[in-house]
Write a structure and sequence with these properties.
This protein has one domain. Helices cover about 65% and strands about 0% of the residues. The chain contains 17 helices and no strands. Helix 3 packs antiparallel against helix 4, helix 12 packs across helix 14 and helix 16 runs antiparallel to helix 17. The longest helix has 28 residues. It is elongated and about 90 Å long. It starts with a helix and ends in an 18-residue tail after the last helix. Bound molecules: zinc ion (2 copies). One zinc ion (ZN) binds next to helix 12 and helix 14.
């Protein structure tokens, strides 16, 4: 039997594998950058607050502090989102797998060995990135959406209280900004999901529509751009910090710290190629089994080689690979 039909050809390292290595390497230095930007922004606001007239009416002062806390929360969500969007799932088969809807995601999470045997990091990243393929509704319950952010954020007021108990104090406005940020943070996932709900005309509350229209919470059109281009508008609270995060991402791409093509675009192309290669393999195997031909035509051979070189390797087609998704 020909080598094409048996696929003894060993593919060289693919573009996808190289991208995975590059993204992973770059992710290692991303966290220090994220931390540096956050610390710089906090420092700048503290400095601004220091020179503000101390005679501001308290109500106005509180409004300024609320705006600052919303800005920092938005900035933080943007940086974290940017980071995870550019991380790579290491398990190649999991990387090539996606689902078409929420029941599919829930089934895959609970019962599929491919997911259950993957590393915790890959499981987290897969669940994070599948939002690009299934933007609405959320696969998690309302409780989970709140607690995913609420749990880690609980450490902030506890730390402040502990610091206070041992005599370490911060200026009052700093404490208030931190506490307001902690109180708002658990709502982040819902604010994000409701932007997708508005795109589907599912938000009835005139107050919430007003807040979205005036960019006091995440505006659906602003977030839609992220789900179209995948390399901008990462912020999830109100988008106020998008100008900073977008410029930071552009700078990181320019200096080579991030790959040029958004990983979601790369991942979709590789899934499509994987499906094409696997389908072609199935056709060849069927022909071989039927013994209707002894050798592939030159065109079939050429297509096989190209498809095999472009994809990440062999394996059965994942159940929900490369579906066409609504991307907003
Ligand atoms: Zn994203
Ligand atoms: Zn989204």
């Amino acid at each position: 039997m020909s080598s094409i039909l048996s696929f003894s050809f060993k593919p060289t390292e693919t573009a996808g594998e190289k991208n995975v290595q590059k993204r992973t390497m770059r992710a290692e230095i991303f966290f220090p950058i994220l931390l540096s930007v956050m610390i710089t922004m906090v420092y700048l606001v503290v400095q601004i607050a220091m020179v503000m007239p101390a005679t501001l009416p308290f109500g106005l002062q509180l409004l300024f502090e609320l705006a600052a806390s919303m800005y920092f929360l938005d900035l933080f969500t943007g940086l974290v989102h940017l980071n995870f969007d550019y991380q790579a799932i290491q398990n190649k088969e999991l990387y090539l797998h996606t689902e078409r809807d929420v029941p599919g995601i829930q089934r895959f999470n609970k019962h599929d060995p491919l997911f259950l045997t993957a590393s915790k990091e890959d499981q987290f990243l897969w669940n994070f990135l599948v939002h690009h393929d299934v933007p609405y509704p959320a696969a998690d319950t309302d409780y989970d959406l709140v607690m995913q952010i609420g749990k880690p954020v609980m450490a902030i007021p506890v730390s402040l209280a502990l610091a206070y108990s041992v005599g370490l104090t911060l200026p009052g406005f700093v404490v208030r900004v931190i506490l307001m940020l902690s109180a708002l943070a658990p709502a982040t996932n819902h604010i994000h999901i409701w932007a997708h709900a508005r795109t589907r005309n599912l938000i009835r509350s005139p107050i919430w529509r007003f807040l979205q229209d005036y960019h006091l919470v995440l505006n659906p059109d602003v977030h839609k751009k992220h789900h179209t281009e995948y390399d901008c508008n990462f912020c999830l609270v109100n988008g106020w910090a998008n100008p900073v995060v977008n410029r930071l991402a552009a700078l990181m791409r320019h200096v080579g710290l991030l790959v040029d093509e958004p990983p979601t675009i790369t991942m979709r192309r590789e899934r499509d190629l994987h499906v094409a290669a696997t389908e072609l393999t199935a056709v060849h195997e069927k022909k071989a089994a039927d013994a209707t031909i002894s050798e592939p035509t030159p065109t079939e051979s050429y297509l096989s080689i190209i498809a095999r070189r472009l994809t990440l390797g062999s394996g059965k087609v994942p159940a929900g690979s490369a579906p066409k998704h609504r991307r907003d």
